[in-house]
Every structure is written in structure tokens, then in C-alpha cells.
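Re: the request from the purification team.
They wanted to know what the chain is likely to look like in 3D before they choose a buffer screen. I agreed to run a prediction and write the result into the notebook, where they can find it.
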Amino acid sequence: MKTTELVETLLRDRVAELGFTLCDVEFQKEYGNWTLTLFIDKQGGVTIDDCELVSRAVDPVLDEADPIAQPYYLSVSSLGLDRPLKKDADYERNLGKEITVRLYAPLDGRKEYTGTLEAYDEAGLTLKLEKGAQIEISRREAALVRPHLRF
């Protein structure tokens, strides 16, 4: 099991007890140091105080289980407005919302589509485009999928 999967399994319930959803876990080297980042969410958004609360609550759990051999920094963060959609839970949160999909190779002459996420499954996405047209895009063809932000 990958480190991120192990940590997610270990902490998911504890984070949920605090009223948050553990949406993603990243473990990567940043500026020569390992960083374990937990991405959390809750209805109404996440504040810096929420991040601190979760950090203090999960730190003892991580210390006791000791799932990571090397030294690391613990970081707790909100998802952010334009966080890429990676997991089914990300797609579920964005059903009925506008997303942008960038493709590895052109599909119908375009490498980027913006539309409302109508449906998804393990194989692909269905977007409702402007003027009511729909397009189905394979998840394998999608290089990057993220919420569409309008300013």
C-alpha cells in the first residue's frame, strides 16, 4: 500500500469525527524536505483555524502509528478553488458544476473543453457544453480536470 493510501485510511475517520472530509493526501519532497499534506473540506469552506484543529488532532495518531519512516513536515490545507479533480469523490462534489478538461491530444479539433459535469464513471466524463451539446471524454484522455472559475 502506498504511503498516501495508508495515511488516508489511518486518518479518514478521525478527520470525519471533527466534521471534515479528508479529500486527498500527498506525500512529496519539497525543497529537499518531505511534506505530508492533508487536503480537507467541509460545508461552508475551511479556515486556517480548521486546518490547525485537524493538524493537532491527527498528529498524535500519526506519531502512534508511525506509518512514515523518514522525517517529514505535516501540512493541512483546504482543497482550494481550482484543485484538480482526481478521485470519484472530487467528481461527485462537482456534479452539476462547470469544469474545464484539458486533453493530451485534440478531440474534435480541440484540446480544452469547459462545460457542466453531467455524469462520470471510472471510464469517462459527460459534459454539457454551451448550446446544449454534450461530449463524452475518456478519463485516460484527460490531462487535467479542474473546476472552472469565473471572475
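For the purification team: The radius of gyration is 18 Å.
Please add any questions underneath this entry.
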